[in-house]
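Please, structure for the following, as tokens.
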Amino acid sequence: MPRAITRRDDALVLEWEPGQPAHVHAARPLRLACPCAECVEEMTGRPLLDPARVPADVRPLSVRLVGTYGLQVRWSDGHGTGIYTFERLRQRAPESVEPAAGAAGA
């Protein structure tokens, strides 16, 4: 579980370990990676979401913890059913930034 989660209009920033760079998940790629049954065919894993339907400026409106294993994001395009597991978020971290001093949670 991350020690800090920061919601920004353009990304989610997760800090995993003290002193280690934070992982930055840009908003649109993260929205396109939604793992819910509406966005991914459950049996085959085939993407169902048409990227053209996701606005370029999509942003996370809110983030909530799902137990101790993941996050649920409510997106500006009205979507909000996907659960992003911490394991998956940690594995797909595309960028890292130095941790911000006193970073706040979501």
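The radius of gyration is 14 Å. Residues 27-32 form the longest helix (6 residues).
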